[in-house]
Amino acid sequence: MDLNSSVERHSPNPPSRIAVVVLGDFGHSPRMQYHALSLANAGHAVDVVSYAESSLPMWEISEHGLIALRAVTRGHFAFAAKWPAACRLLVRAIAQFIHLTFILCTIQRPKRMVVQNPPCVPTFLACGVVCWMRGIELVIDWHNLAFTLFGMKYGSETRVAKMCERHERKQGKRWASKHMCVTDAMREFLETEWGMTNVSVVRDRAAEQFRIAARTRADANNPMWFWKQTRVQEELEKSRVARSGDVLDRYVRGHHENLHRNKPRIVVSSTSWTPDENFGILLDAAIAYDARKRTSGGVSSYESPDLVIIITGKGPEREMYEQKINTLALKHVAFRTVWLDIADYPLALASAHLGVCLHTSSSGLDLPMKVLDMFGASLPVAAVRYEVVKELIEDGVNGVLFSDAEELCKLLQKLLSRKNKYILTALRAGAEKAGELTWNDHWNEHAKPLFSD
Fold first, then answer.
1. Over the stretch 132-147, which tens digit does the pLDDT of each residue have?
2. How confident is the model at residue 176 (pLDDT cuts 50, 70, 90)?
3. Are both 349 and 303 inside the same structural domain?
4. Domain of 198: which CATH number?
5. CB 141 within 8 A of CB 114
6. Residues 311, 313, 318, CA angle at the centre, nearest 5°?
7. With helix as H, strand as E and coil as C, how does 148-171 read?
8. The whole model's pTM is what?
9. Of 54, 60, 229, 329, which is the most exposed, with the fewest CB atoms less than 10 Å away?
10. Left, alpha or beta for 396 (phi > 0: left; psi -120 to 50: alpha)?
11. Which keywords describe this protein according to UniProt (predicted)?
12. CA 448 to CA 264: how far, in whole Å?
């Protein structure tokens, strides 16, 4: 669907209109896609305002008669490419403020507006002013704290980072009458530290397609069936870290020493390749795993199987890590970096043995959506340990936690060994139970009342 063609496809006499503002790639924001779809399914006409050239959202949104997509500029201009970073950011913010304000002033007046945060600049000011002028109720959906992400990139003690924190706190409190957030810890912070009111916790949950994928995998009774499909193999072969003769290549071509028993284990991680995910931990763990299997001499694939680590996603640090992966000389571990189709992603999770999450949270208050997707697909997770992650992962029940590469390496050896398969089976059962409550169930209970007339 072309985001620049805003075709009105609304049902007769909808109860109300709602604008969903994502100053980012809507196709890469599952939570905002789920919000838009849930609102439309509840009978609201939804205008989604997101980046031009955005990745295509899920087909249920593209084909929904109550959802219209509208494009806002990314604010990237060729003439400013060589300017200092501060000047580029200022030009970008001004351009986006003007364009976003124009769009929100010219669409049919919505009753409510839902804004994703981060980013808070220029969305809080633009959306706040428009809502004040047009008599619209503003709802902020707090995924994280924008100033902490800015500080991670440019320095948390810089004057600009401190200005961003003040702007986020004051503008968020000034304009919004309701707030949603993703964790109890974030709600407590917003209420006690920033003085916000009417804060509701609307937790991330997997969409129904992940449960369907889990059932599909169970029916197939073979985790490798998905990875052997032609379209998936073609995508894996296009990976910039694919190597002829590595573990996956040997297995696909029928040359691997374990084609039937003790087959390679599939480890999946999804990422936006941002600084709050340190993939160096996974690379170091893979190096240690490979070295231990090489030096242990007689260790069998029954005790220590070969690994295929598949990382899906797009983002700024992808190329850097691909270059690092290509310098590794691994015999028993293969990597693939890919971008899977939105229809294939749930099946990829369901067809893996273990998921890995390296999200550490810039604020320490948010949770990774990818873990919910993995639970929805009945995939147990190994995740980096930090305080708030305990709201999501019960260590030893639906997943495991680690602090560094050495600990992750030991977990890979323990969980993926055939002799310990009962441990992974128990974790999969825990993940399946954690994924039983889907987005629709949770949204209808906790978010839908916020949009009731």
1. 999 999 999 999 999 9
2. very high
3. yes
4. 3.40.50.2000
5. yes
6. 80
7. HHHHHHHCCCCHHHHHHHHHHHHH
8. 0.88
9. 329
10. left
11. Endoplasmic reticulum, Glycosyltransferase, Membrane, Transferase, Transmembrane, Transmembrane helix
12. 44
